[in-house]
Amino acid sequence: MVDIDGVRDWLGRLPGGSLVGQYVDDWDAFEKLDRPVVTLFGSYDSGKSSLLRRLLVDSGGNVPGWLTISARHETFEVNDAEVGGCIIRDTPGFAVGASDIRAQNNSRRAMAAVGLTDVGIVVLTPQLATAERDVLQKLFTQGWPVGTMWFVISRFDEAGVDPEYDLAEYRELSDRKVREMRELFELDDRIPVFVVSQDPFQTAGPDTDLSRETWDDFRGWDGMRDLADAFEAVSPSALPGWRHTAGQRYWTAVLDETVTVLRRQLSDYTAGAEVAASGVARRDVWESELDTLDRAAQASLDGLIEEVMRRSWESSSGADELQAEIQRTLDEWFTKHEVRLQRLQQSIRKTKERERARPSWAGFASLVATLGSGEDASTTPAGPGGAAEHVETVGTMLIGLLKAANNAPGPIAGGKASPAKAAGDLGRHIGIAEAALPLAVYMAKVVDEQGADRARLNQDKAAAEKRQQVVAECTQRTRDTWQPFVDDVREAIVAETSDQVDLDASLRQLVEQLQEAVAEGEGLFRAGTVPLLETEV
Fold it and tell me: How far is CA 136 from CA 112, 214, 279, 531, in A?
């Protein structure tokens, strides 16, 4: 038996916030009901709504406005009706493998409603279960006292034998289908199986304003009498035992559903954390490589400017030739080291292209977009109906936790880099001549201004110091001209990795929290067992 108090305590300590209040509210509302709750569930075309209509009309009750009869998927919510001393719940039909959101939500609502019921009735067509077999198998092995799980094979007038022409063959087919049902789900004789034709030959069709006499001609073989007798035999005196078992079933389902969602979230966030960590590592590598290139370029400047100016002072060339010589030297230096920067830029670009082509990047990019959307991350339950209605809020809670950790009312990272330095816009790409020309003009002018007294500059100590100042100034000007090239690459590195670096710490922390939550939830499973149709009440 699962430790319900342990489950509640665990739910109250989930990463991002507590879910326990939402589950307790649903359970308390169910536990306060003083009549047995009977829930119909099955695929959307199994005939649940028409079966409920027949039960209501035969018992003298009114058919509520929400109850519609159609071959299409018409029931979208869990609704209650009263038949005799029971509350009967009609659930949306589940659609196994459905891809559209509405069908998936309907399936979850139907499955969740069974956690808050005393008696469950599986409704199937004469073809029995096919795609939904595994879903049903999981459902009715969740701990039901003997006599609280029923099976109904409905719409049996459509099974292929007309009972009004060959009643014996119809009953033989009915017996065979019951045997197939028991074999399919390995049901023992204690589990009741009913075969009914709730609206033979679609006599009532979609109508809801009906009288009991509508089906009088078919009562001898339609099987509804046996089902009605079973409803009358449902005794409120058994409620305490049923509710106790329902509590185990409900909180076990809550634990199961929540752990399943947390495992999925853990897988997704682990993948995101790996992407973030790779961005941190790449930034470190790229910045280290950039620093190495920059140091090499700066080191090669030492002595270069002094040498080019010394040659210029000693030369008898004209101003134009002097400027050309200086520019040629600077062009060579800029070209050599900018090529290395461009190679690093290309490496960054190609690496990011490969990373963005991986499936893990799509999930990370989606997370970044969600965090930067500015949407409200408050947790609002999707509606009544049990575990599956609430576990979808786990993802919202975790997003809220990440938003709080990153203080991100708006875009978390991309907006921090200036538009000119956005990803894909690597470097300023100013031309070599464009960079070197102002330096060459300035240096040629300095050399020319000192040209009248070149000998004194080489001998006079004060003049020599002046010369060193000029060299130092020209070297610094060259460094200043070079620096934007380096800054562009550094900003590109930051822009390309900002989302990853910004989220790295919070994602690592969230993954650790999810690992702990999943491990604790799995421990609650291992600590208890769930009874499987063995408890007699």
Answer: 13, 33, 45, 17
Distance set, CA 481 to CA 330, 389, 422, 431, 473 (Å): 11, 62, 22, 12, 12
Distance between CA atoms of residues 93 and 100, nearest Å: 14
pTM: 0.73
Provide the β-strand partners of residue 86. Answer: 83
Give the end-to-end CA distance of the chain in Å, rounded to a whole number: 16
Contact 231, 83 (CB under 8 A): yes
Distance CA 357, CA 34 (A): 58
Angle at 40 between CA 36 and CA 45, to 5 degrees: 170
Q: How far apart are CA 27 and CA 32, in angstroms?
A: 9
DSSP string, 162-175: -TTT-HHHHHHHHH
Give the whole-angstrom CA distance, residue 192 versus residue 296.
85
pLDDT in tens, 244-297: 988 888 888 888 888 988 999 999 999 999 999 999 999 999 999 999 999 999
Listed in sequence order, the residues at least 6 apart from 293 whose beta carbon sits closer than 8 Å to its beta carbon are: 337, 340, 341, 344, 486
pLDDT in tens, 465-524: 777 777 787 788 888 888 888 999 999 999 999 999 999 999 999 999 999 999 999 999
Question: In which residue are the tokens 């078919």 written?
Answer: 218
